[in-house]
Amino acid sequence: MTRRIVVGIGGASGQPYAQRVLAFLADHRDTLDLDVHVVFSRTGRLVWQDEVGEDAAQYGFPIHPPGDMTAPFASGSSRFDAMVVVPCSAGGLARIAHGLSTDLIGRAADVMLKERRPLVLVLRESPYSLIHLENMAAVTRAGALVMPASPSFYSNPTTRTALLDTVTARILDQLGIDNALMRRWSGRQAQRPDAPAAPPRPDPLPGGPVPPAAGGDPIRPWRGGPDAASVPAHPDAPAASPRPDPLPGGPVPPAAGGDPIRPWRGGPDAASVPPHPDAPAASSRPDPLPGEPVPAAASTSETP
Ligand SMILES: Cc1cc2nc3c(=O)[nH]c(=O)nc-3n(C[C@H](O)[C@H](O)[C@H](O)COP(=O)(O)O)c2cc1C
Description:
This protein has helices at 15-27, 42-51, 90-97, 104-114, 130-141, 160-174, 188-191, and strands spanning 3-9, 34-40, 63-64, 82-88, 119-123, 145-146. It is α/β, with parallel strands linked by helices and 304 residues long. The chain has a domain at 3-174: 3-Layer(aba) Sandwich (Rossmann fold). It has a six-stranded parallel β-sheet with strand order 3-2-1-4-5-6, sandwiched between helices. Flavin mononucleotide binds at residues 10-13, 41, 43-44, 46-47, 50, 89-92, 124-125.
């Protein structure tokens, strides 16, 4: 029986994942009996141009305009089997999470959720805000599957395409499409039966640069974090700026002509961070906790 699949392409980075999905579906259209429909968001079209650059029409699937609510999959009665949004932007996720059918991707996703059909959202954003996380929870509760565009390395991909396919294979799996795009995990020994014992590579931290990979650039160790000061500088690193480290405490000195940047005052050490000199005086009124009575303002006389 023909399987009908919607591929939504949102306005996030990660367009090469969409390209790999389309290429696989096009190659297997006849053998797997697939009926694939494609819709780009407006920004998705632009990001595709930047990151892929080729004409998506070459895959031979119908491509629907982003605002075309007359597309077949804009109605549940057309009974599409599954939909993937790849990549899915945080904005696209938010619209789907809130049922805003303001464009065809949003409407088609809404249809998949209401019809209880598989909807895979290949989210591409980093880091995540609480809003993103809550939207992910909302769509998950509604039946979608959130799948971050997060490549893996256990199959030892050695090319860009192989790395992309660590994500593409898992997307196709979730759409119920058999594929052999990546070597699958079948136990550590089975994974690399001929792997030689790991050489006794010296641990580069704390301190100097990681020895260069064969012919490659040295990798600089990360110099942030609590032990940053104890990590000696990479010998090739430019001389450190004389700009004093503003934390803990005072404001970051203004960038040339710019506003001072306020250090973040949350976190466990918030109380020990002195206030910014420009900050308004802190109110002496204690913050009531939820459920506690709000204390009377200073000017209010006590009721006898
Ligand atoms: C070049 C470019 C790259 C972008 N990359 C991302 C991204 O990786 N993740 C994201 O959530 N938004 C990204 N955005 C922003 C989204 O395109 C924007 O929020 C848009 O409104 C999302 O809606 P859409 O997915 O329906 O296009 C990018 C925008 C541009 C122009």
